[in-house]
Amino acid sequence: MKTQMIIMYFVAVFIPILCISVIMIAYNVSRLQEYHSGLLSANNNRVRSVMYEITSQIQSISDEIVFDGELIEMLSKEYPVDKAFCEAVDGYGALESYKRNYAGVADVFVYTNQKGAVDYRNFRAVTDETEAESWYRIAGSQYSVHWDIIENGDSYGNSYWNLTLVRKITLYDTDAEAVLMIKVSDNYLGSRIEDNDCSIVLAIDDGRIFYGPDRSEYGSRGMLDFVNPDDNYFTYQGEIAYNGTMIKSCVSTLNMTHSDSWVYVVTMSNSAYASIQQLTVTTVIIIMFALVLPAVIMSVFIKIFSKQVNAMRDEMYRVSQGDYDMLEQFEGCYELNAAYGDLKIMVKKIKEKDERMYAGVITRQRLLNEQQIMRFQMLASQINPHFLYNTLEMIRMKAIVAGDGETAKAIKLLGRSMRYVLDNTGIQYTTLAKELSHIETYLEIQRLRFGDRVNYVLECQDGLEPEHIEILPLLLQPIVENAILHGLEEVESGGVIKLSVTKDAKSCFVIIAISDNGCGMDAKTLRNMRRNLEKGTMNNRYGIGLYNINQRIRLCYGTGCGLTVESTEAEGTTVTARIRYVNV
């Protein structure tokens, strides 16, 4: 048995879970790689878009500068002394304004070899070292824009590399030359392209890095030694070596506007391999748990099963000796009862039949007792109303004989009201005509009670037949009662309860509005009233009656039905019941 269980475990559990797990890991790893590849491509496109925006703006600024007539005129002159050149520079402040007004501009310089030029403000005199620089030679040999990266140092010995636009300024009627240099702000570039999900490296077309997470690599070419420098539309997606580690990356190129230069945009995932590794480890742990747990459960199962088999053999021996009382002590949850034999089955069936017979006698007697109680209750419910009506009629006749007509009228109205309540208790629907008649009786009683404090008006829309409209019994009285007790609470005389019944012409709804001309409610009280009407947490002032009525209407008539409350302070309150039109 143990061998069969182990074989079953490997066939039904271990092998299927292992196969499914391998497929699941491969699928999830593939999907995760696709996700990170898509993320890298999206970030790469985003960085290219930002770079295009920044370089295009710098390009536009350079157009404004190189075609500035005032600047060209200033650079075309010769200055006999340094002071004259400085005075001319002081009179031209446009270069400094570009640095001030454009966050993407780190610095703007004009290099010139005209006579009298010195290093002053945003102007630099061309020296032999300047003429030896490659960017100066390239700018001087062409009229188009050229992009390069230029190293700069500060007073602390730190080196910085900036992406820089260099461009020749065309001068007329002079042998002097001038070159414009606009440096892109490294900090501004970082604020626009940085992303927490990936690292970004930017390099010029010759492979030199000018932006990245490691400043020590600025100006180096080693990272992009695998690219084709002649392909200015180069793209690549895969692994590249960075700081001694293979990282999932995406490489593309960005061709600069009106220029033969381009930039390599490299986006590298910071978490791709870590997330894949974490997913794989988590999945392996889950798989191990899924394989070990069934093995433990099966081991416990085999142990318990063996114990039950031994217990079954002991019980069979006791039964064979005639000890029927020991049969109930066997605790088994498997199909081992067949091994007990015919004796066990016979004894068990005899005991079950005896138990069923005894239970049947008790159940039958309980039913007879309950039926007897119901008969007594039905008889009492028939006697009590009859006795009550006769007693009220006797009292009414005595009032008539005594000449007290008002008391006789009150007793007659009370009897009519109580008869309606008793007759409609326990039934599902009544007619609207009967309900309105009961409300009129109730209002007559209240008018007898309160005098001129309570008056009423009942209106029914022309053509509406209330005797053919179904309504829940005893639905309107709590609303009318609430209007009298709370709406007319502070009214000394002239109080009016108005009940109007109309039918919505656009839909099959009956609208019953019950209003009073009492004290009304302020905005806060009305807001609490509406909220409590929905949630059933009404306070003692308004009671739980309206909430129960609202729930009855919604349960019986469905969506779109229920109560609404409108009130104006010092003018009165209107409670509207909206029910579905049901023709009898």
What is the structure about, briefly put?
This protein has 584 residues and is α+β, with helices and mostly antiparallel strands. The protein is built from 14 helices and 17 strands. Helix 1 runs antiparallel to helix 8 and helix 9 packs antiparallel against helix 10.
Question: Mind explaining what this structure looks like?
Answer:
With 584 residues, this protein is an alpha+beta fold. Helix content is 51%, strand content 20%. The chain is built from 14 helices and 17 strands. The chain has helices at residues 2-66, 69-75, 82-90, 94-101, 128-132, 134-141, 186-193, 272-320, 341-401, 405-424, 432-450, 477-487, 523-535, 545-557; strands at 105-112, 123-125, 146-153, 159-169, 178-184, 198-204, 209-211, 236-242, 245-255, 262-269, 430-431, 455-460, 470-471, 496-503, 509-516, 562-568, 572-580. Strands 2-1-5-4-3 form a five-stranded mixed β-sheet. Strand 4 (159-169) and strand 5 form a beta hairpin. Helix 1 (2-66) runs antiparallel to helix 8, helix 9 (341-401) packs antiparallel against helix 10 and helix 10 (405-424) packs antiparallel against helix 11. The model is unreliable at 373-383 (pLDDT under 50).
Keyphrases for this structure?
584 residues, alpha+beta, five-stranded mixed sheet, five-stranded antiparallel sheet, 17 strands, 51% helix, flat
Residue stretches low in confidence (pLDDT < 50, at least 5 long) are: 373-383
Number of E-type strands: 17
Q: Note the total helix count.
A: 14
State the end-to-end CA separation: 73 Å
